Amino acid sequence: MTESRQEVFVSVDVETSGPIPGVYSMLSIGACLVDRPETTFTALLQPISDAFDMDALAVTGMSLEELRISGMTPDEAMTGFARWVEASAGPDATPVFVGFNAPFDWSFVNYYFHRFIGSNPFGFTALDIKALYMGATCCDWSNTRSSRIAAHLKPELKGDHDALHDALYQAELFRLIRQITTVVRV
């Protein structure tokens, strides 16, 4: 039997200017280690286009004009994030991307990693908290909204569309879901 590498779960949240990468911009990234949430990363990014969805910007409260001045270039932000992931996970571990509605956040993070630095330190590992909750509780998909999960699990933190705050909140949800599941090791 081969020994598997330790998995390090990394809660990641992004704020964007719209629904899809490439056309719209990732505006901020927040991340923390699920089991060591004091270990964090955050960055504001310069937009890659002028395209935006009014609702997306209203939710974030961010301005594309301000981010053009104060944000990091995408290659600087993604290089810094990759270094943080690798250093935080350690050389003998596999970092696992964890997100709330992971397909959305993953699409931007994966696109930016490949476009700006050529590779993704997460490889192809992404874990969705909503799907995990659905499997752990046998609920319907409609019951995986954050408000319903929070009503059941009663986390101390709340999401507020600040990428780092949301990553910390998601990490707490992930830990609470793990507490209600029976662990089966294969």
From TrEMBL:
Signal peptide: none annotated. SUPFAM superfamilies: Ribonuclease H-like. Gene3D superfamilies: Ribonuclease H-like superfamily/Ribonuclease H (3.30.420.10). Keywords: Exonuclease, Hydrolase, Nuclease. GO terms for molecular function: exonuclease activity; nucleic acid binding. It comes from the Bacteria. GO terms for biological process: DNA metabolic process. Residues 8-183 form the Exonuclease domain. InterPro entries: Ribonucl_H (IPR013520), RNaseH-like_sf (IPR012337), RNaseH_sf (IPR036397). This is 3'-5' exonuclease.
